[in-house]
Amino acid sequence: MLIAAPAPAAEPHKMWPNSLSPEELSLRLEEGARRPLGSRENPIRVFRPDGERDYLSRLRCSDGVAPAFSRIGSYGPKPGIYGHIVDAYQVVCRSGDPAEATLLMDMYFADHTETAAPLGFTLQAP
Questions:
Q1: DSSP state of 31
Q2: pTM
Protein backbone atom coordinates (compact mmCIF):
# COMPACT_ATOMS: atom_id res chain seq x y z
CA MET A 1 0.00 0.00 0.00
CA LEU A 2 1.27 3.46 -0.93
CA ILE A 3 0.60 6.43 1.30
CA ALA A 4 0.81 9.88 -0.18
CA ALA A 5 2.89 12.33 1.78
CA PRO A 6 2.43 16.07 1.47
CA ALA A 7 4.87 17.76 -0.86
CA PRO A 8 7.62 19.76 0.84
CA ALA A 9 7.01 23.50 0.95
CA ALA A 10 8.33 25.22 -2.15
CA GLU A 11 11.00 27.83 -1.78
CA PRO A 12 9.63 31.28 -2.69
CA HIS A 13 11.92 31.72 -5.68
CA LYS A 14 10.75 28.38 -7.07
CA MET A 15 7.08 29.23 -6.62
CA TRP A 16 7.38 31.99 -9.21
CA PRO A 17 9.81 30.69 -11.82
CA ASN A 18 11.70 33.17 -13.92
CA SER A 19 12.56 32.03 -17.42
CA LEU A 20 15.43 34.51 -17.61
CA SER A 21 18.98 33.49 -16.90
CA PRO A 22 20.69 35.43 -14.08
CA GLU A 23 22.76 37.24 -16.71
CA GLU A 24 19.69 38.24 -18.76
CA LEU A 25 17.82 39.33 -15.64
CA SER A 26 20.79 41.51 -14.63
CA LEU A 27 20.82 43.16 -18.07
CA ARG A 28 17.07 43.83 -17.91
CA LEU A 29 17.38 45.27 -14.40
CA GLU A 30 20.02 47.70 -15.69
CA GLU A 31 17.84 48.58 -18.69
CA GLY A 32 14.76 49.04 -16.51
CA ALA A 33 16.59 51.34 -14.10
CA ARG A 34 16.86 53.86 -16.95
CA ARG A 35 13.05 54.01 -17.29
CA PRO A 36 10.41 55.55 -15.02
CA LEU A 37 9.54 53.34 -12.05
CA GLY A 38 6.02 51.97 -12.45
CA SER A 39 6.15 51.72 -16.25
CA ARG A 40 6.01 48.54 -18.35
CA GLU A 41 9.75 48.96 -18.95
CA ASN A 42 10.42 49.30 -15.19
CA PRO A 43 7.50 47.86 -13.22
CA ILE A 44 7.54 48.04 -9.44
CA ARG A 45 8.92 44.68 -8.29
CA VAL A 46 7.01 42.99 -5.45
CA PHE A 47 5.99 39.50 -4.35
CA ARG A 48 2.41 38.38 -4.78
CA PRO A 49 -0.75 40.50 -4.50
CA ASP A 50 0.03 41.09 -0.81
CA GLY A 51 3.29 42.71 -1.90
CA GLU A 52 1.44 44.98 -4.32
CA ARG A 53 -0.95 46.15 -1.61
CA ASP A 54 1.87 46.55 0.93
CA TYR A 55 3.85 48.73 -1.47
CA LEU A 56 0.83 50.86 -2.32
CA SER A 57 -0.03 51.30 1.37
CA ARG A 58 3.46 52.77 1.93
CA LEU A 59 3.21 55.15 -1.06
CA ARG A 60 2.67 58.84 -0.33
CA CYS A 61 1.57 61.69 -2.59
CA SER A 62 3.66 64.85 -2.90
CA ASP A 63 1.63 66.36 -0.04
CA GLY A 64 2.53 63.43 2.25
CA VAL A 65 -0.97 61.90 2.19
CA ALA A 66 -1.59 58.27 1.23
CA PRO A 67 -3.21 58.00 -2.21
CA ALA A 68 -6.36 56.08 -3.01
CA PHE A 69 -5.65 53.15 -5.30
CA SER A 70 -7.54 50.50 -7.21
CA ARG A 71 -6.47 47.62 -9.39
CA ILE A 72 -7.23 48.18 -13.06
CA GLY A 73 -6.25 44.66 -14.16
CA SER A 74 -3.42 42.65 -15.64
CA TYR A 75 -1.59 43.80 -18.73
CA GLY A 76 -0.97 40.89 -21.03
CA PRO A 77 -0.43 38.86 -23.09
CA LYS A 78 2.62 41.02 -23.86
CA PRO A 79 4.71 40.67 -20.70
CA GLY A 80 6.72 43.34 -18.98
CA ILE A 81 10.48 43.65 -19.29
CA TYR A 82 11.08 40.67 -16.98
CA GLY A 83 8.87 38.29 -18.95
CA HIS A 84 5.86 38.37 -16.61
CA ILE A 85 2.36 39.74 -16.95
CA VAL A 86 2.16 43.00 -14.99
CA ASP A 87 -0.69 44.38 -12.90
CA ALA A 88 -1.89 47.96 -13.31
CA TYR A 89 -3.13 50.16 -10.49
CA GLN A 90 -4.78 53.56 -10.68
CA VAL A 91 -3.35 55.81 -7.97
CA VAL A 92 -5.18 59.05 -7.10
CA CYS A 93 -3.90 61.94 -4.98
CA ARG A 94 -6.58 64.36 -3.77
CA SER A 95 -4.31 67.37 -3.44
CA GLY A 96 -0.88 66.09 -4.45
CA ASP A 97 0.84 66.12 -7.79
CA PRO A 98 0.43 64.07 -9.91
CA ALA A 99 -3.31 64.00 -9.28
CA GLU A 100 -3.52 60.58 -10.92
CA ALA A 101 -1.07 57.94 -12.12
CA THR A 102 -1.19 54.42 -13.52
CA LEU A 103 1.49 52.25 -11.93
CA LEU A 104 2.51 48.84 -13.24
CA MET A 105 3.71 46.15 -10.86
CA ASP A 106 5.45 42.81 -11.38
CA MET A 107 4.49 40.49 -8.52
CA TYR A 108 6.96 37.70 -9.28
CA PHE A 109 9.97 38.88 -7.25
CA ALA A 110 10.14 36.89 -4.03
CA ASP A 111 13.58 38.15 -3.00
CA HIS A 112 13.07 41.88 -3.59
CA THR A 113 11.59 44.69 -1.53
CA GLU A 114 11.16 47.86 -3.56
CA THR A 115 12.51 50.91 -1.72
CA ALA A 116 12.13 53.50 -4.47
CA ALA A 117 9.05 55.56 -5.31
CA PRO A 118 7.76 56.63 -8.72
CA LEU A 119 8.35 60.24 -9.78
CA GLY A 120 6.17 62.60 -7.74
CA PHE A 121 5.71 60.15 -4.84
CA THR A 122 7.60 59.14 -1.72
CA LEU A 123 7.67 55.79 0.00
CA GLN A 124 7.56 55.00 3.71
CA ALA A 125 10.00 52.37 4.99
CA PRO A 126 8.65 48.81 5.31
A1: H
A2: 0.82
